[in-house]
Structure formats: structure tokens, C-alpha cells
Amino acid sequence: MSQIEEITPQEVDTMISQDKPLTIIDVRENEEVAQGMVPTAKHIPLGNIPYEIDQYSKDKEYILVCRSGSRSMNAAEFMKEKGFPHVKNMQGGMLKWTGELVF
User: Fold this and answer.
1) Any keyword Protein biosynthesis (predicted)?
2) Where in the chain are the domains?
3) If exposure means fewest CB atoms within 10 Å of the residue's CB, which of 23, 37, 64, 75 is most exposed?
4) CA-CA-CA-CA torsion for 45, 50, 53, 59, nearest 10 degrees?
5) pLDDT truncated to tens, each residue of the chain (103 aa)?
6) Which fold does the domain 5-96 belong to in CATH?
7) Other CB atoms within 10 Å distance of the CB of residue 10
């Protein structure tokens, strides 16, 4: 069983609207991201996560997002293994997102 905390899309939307300090990482592929992303999200395709996470601080909170929540859970588990203690997975991914989209 995963040790990754999950967060609902509604909670993420509320945190964005309250300007909470968080970094959202969208791990979907380019063609998926072209259909819209969560506002403020950074796009790092899942396969690039191992090469790009060194650019990020281990002190910050990260929320991982994908289409359904499965790939983002894998990315969150990877980041946790690499010493990122504050990672969460957005439950249901973009399929459950009802908030604003940015393109």
C-alpha cells in the first residue's frame, strides 16, 4: 500500500484560489497537456521526472497530477523515495478536475 497522501481536486482548487505555497507537477504527455492543465501547474512528463526533480527544493510541497491519478502516484512515490517528504497525489487526476483550465 502506498505511503503517499492523496488530495482531492476540490482541495487543490481551493489551495490555488487561496494562493497557498505549493507546486503542482503535471506528469502527462504533451498531447494530454494540450487539452488543458490545472492553473499554476508545471509540466514534466513522467519519463522526465528522474532528470528534472533535482531542480526542485525538498522543502516545498508538491502535488502530482495525471489523467486518472495512477502515473502521478508513481511519480509521487519516486519523489518520496528520492527524499521529497511533502508530495501528494491528486485523486482521480484530470478526469475529476472541475476547476479552471489553462492552455
Assistant:
1) no
2) 5-96
3) 23
4) 120
5) 568 999 999 999 999 999 998 899 999 999 999 999 999 999 999 999 999 999 999 999 999 999 999 999 999 999 999 999 999 999 999 999 999 999 9
6) Oxidized Rhodanese; domain 1 (3.40.250)
7) 13
Instruction: Indicate the helix (H) or strand (E) that contains 76.
Output: helix 70-81
Q: Hey, which residues are catalytic here?
A: 66
Look-up of cell digits 506528469: 27
Using left for φ > 0, alpha for ψ between -120 and 50, and beta otherwise, residue 83 falls in left
- Rounded to whole angstroms, the Cα distance separating 96 from 14 reads 14
pTM of the model: 0.95
